[in-house]
Write a structure and sequence with these properties.
By secondary structure, the chain is of the alpha/beta class. It is built from five helices and nine strands, in the order E-E-E-H-E-H-E-H-E-E-E-H-E-H. The protein has a nine-stranded mixed sheet. Strand 5, helix 3 and strand 6 form a beta-alpha-beta unit. Helix 1 runs parallel beside helix 2.
Length: 206
């Protein structure tokens, strides 16, 4: 079986709980909420994605493992890999997660939460869910929930889910400054939430 991957690179986590932490990022191609083509954005379930995940390289399982392992600095301890996309849960294989775990990798995923594969989730050390209000949420527990704001109903509808951390992420785009100010005010009034900013963009890294 082959896997479609947009890119594999080494950088710093720019968002959420692990912000600033070095990690290997494995960005899968394909998403179930948008094709990635601009001409389809208006009709997509998720219309505000700011990530290019359309290009892809085919990897066999062993090749994918080697690419991820090889992206971590040789001889350095505490390796971490973050699977993202697109939607990584469409392709993420258990065998890859198992082998990376044996090699000592801390394994994290960033998902829209619409594809629930308990077997896959059981091999992950960290689960970050970023729900989209127009899509059914199937993963109701994890480590952090990261909600792009504003979109749809009041964020309080998510507080009953079993997550340890709740983040509010200002929606990127031409209204970023306004969305950030609105998110700041919401967090101040609702302190179970924390403000999440895309620090990797602010410092100019991937």
């Amino acid at each position: 079986m082959t896997y479609l991957v947009n890119e594999i690179f080494y950088s710093l986590q720019g968002e959420g709980y692990w912000s600033g932490r070095p990690a290997v990022f494995c960005r899968f191609s394909r998403c179930n909420l948008w094709t990635g083509r601009e001409e389809d954005r208006a009709s997509a379930i998720c219309q505000f994605c700011d990530t290019d995940f359309t290009a892809s390289t085919k990897y066999e399982l062993a090749e994918l493992f080697d690419a991820i392992k090889g992206a971590w600095p040789s001889g350095q301890p505490n390796p971490m890999v973050v699977f993202t996309g697109g939607e990584p849960m469409l392709q993420l294989p258990i065998n890859l997660l198992s082998t990376l775990g044996i090699e000592g990798f801390y394994r994290a995923v960033e998902t829209n939460g619409t594809v629930n594969k308990p077997g896959v989730l059981s091999f992950l050390d960290w689960v970050c869910v970023s729900p989209k209000v127009n899509a059914p949420l199937e993963i109701h527990r994890g480590d952090e929930l990261k909600l792009v704001y504003p979109q749809g109903p009041d964020p309080s509808v998510y507080l009953g889910l079993k997550f340890d951390h709740f983040w509010l992420s200002p929606m990127d785009g031409p209204n970023l400054a306004e969305n950030t100010a609105t998110a700041v005010e919401y967090v101040k009034q609702n302190p179970r939430w924390r403000l999440n900013t895309q620090t990797h963009k602010q410092v100019g890294i991937r």
